[in-house]
């Protein structure tokens, strides 16, 4: 380390060491307000990216549904369908979570009808249900893929803080869930009738 010859050298060395940190602090103070104004813009970009990814994955799930399920008909419980779709306009995220709950309830009912002693674990519950439905041949591989795709989309929405999916995407998701519910409920009726006969 250099030793200053006199107080003037000492001041110059001290300024040399402090100039960059001081400059950086000064720049940050000057740019503090513009940077603060950019934060909502950065948040907006993040949300836009989320929506684009969600939309692409939802389109993929729709393509899977077209290949995996019979042509969709409005379910007998039309009031559920109407309520979910109406809610999608002002509570899209909650409507998506509620639509998934319908899938979960139908899947669980079908599984327990087939295996009454089955214990469905709380940890990775949905993954377990989808895999078990496939193992029991209650759904096809394509339907299992759709089940897992809808599950993953549901998880994305459940963990999306301070963000709401737009209502059009919410309705699209709800319709896919109701189509899968219709299939699972019909499979439940078929297995129940088979057992009874």
General description of the model:
This protein is mainly alpha-helical and 197 residues long. The protein has one domain: Up-down Bundle (Four Helix Bundle (Hemerythrin (Met), subunit A)). Helices cover 79% and strands 0% of the residues. It is built from six helices and no strands. Helix 1 packs antiparallel against helix 5 (141-158) and helix 3 crosses helix 4. It is elongated. The model has no long low-confidence stretch (mean pLDDT 78).
- Looking at the structure, the CATH topology is Four Helix Bundle (Hemerythrin (Met), subunit A)
Residue windows where pLDDT falls under 50 for at least 5 positions? none
Proportion in β-strands: under 5%
CATH architecture call? Up-down Bundle
CATH C-level category: Mainly Alpha
Overall average pLDDT: 78
**How many separate domains make up the residues?**
1
Quickly give the structural class.
Answer: mainly alpha
Rg result: 28 Å
Number of strands: 0
**Shape label:** elongated
Element pattern in H and E? HHHHHH
Percentage of residues assigned to helices: over 70%
